[in-house]
Amino acid sequence: MNPARRLGSLLRRAALWAGAAALVLSIIITALGFLAAATFLELTRHTSPELAAAATGAALLTLALLIALIARSTLKRMRAKQPPLLADFTGTLALTTRLIAALIRRDPKKALIVSLISGALAEYIMSERKK
């Protein structure tokens, strides 16, 4: 995965996390407000509006917990889909190293010729970019 794509994915994850955290925090604050109001009203009057406020607060806390669990599982799934940042590079490097080692073991003369040709190609490509 190229770095720009990886950065975009990291930014999307961060935005999702921040949005979910802000939503959960606002719901928790609202729920705590309702629960505080319900407790206050329950202690002062002992009537049914308090039970409604308590039920509303409990429902909001349940909703906040549900949103937090969904966001957590979504973030875990997003993280599991992506390979580590250097996985492609290290895989390619390991494969190249194994191929070079196999070539050298089989025929060192061919390995020398291949290295000379690749060096000449690298010099040609780099000299074109300098101009």
Which SSEs are present, and which pair or pack?
Blueprint: H1 3-44, H2 48-81, H3 87-106, H4 108-130
Helix pairs in contact: 1-2, 3-4
Q: What class, by secondary structure content?
A: mainly alpha
User: What is the helical fraction, as a range of percent?
Assistant: over 70%
Number of strands: 0
- Give the SSE order as H and E letters: HHHH
Domain count: 2
Largest sheet: none
Mean pLDDT value: 79
Rg for CA atoms: 30 Å
- Please indicate the percent range of residues in DSSP E strands (runs of 2 or more): under 5%
Question: Unreliable stretches, pLDDT < 50, 5 or more residues?
Answer: none
Please give the count of helices. 4
Descriptive report:
- The longest helix has 42 residues, at 3-44.
- α1 (3-44) packs antiparallel against α2 (48-81).
- The mean pLDDT is 79.
- The protein contains four helices and no strands.
- It is 91% helix and 0% strand.
- The protein folds into two domains: 3-82; 88-130.
- The protein starts with a helix and ends with a helix.
- It is mainly α.
- It is rod-shaped.
Report a brief summary of the structure.
The protein contains four helices and no strands.
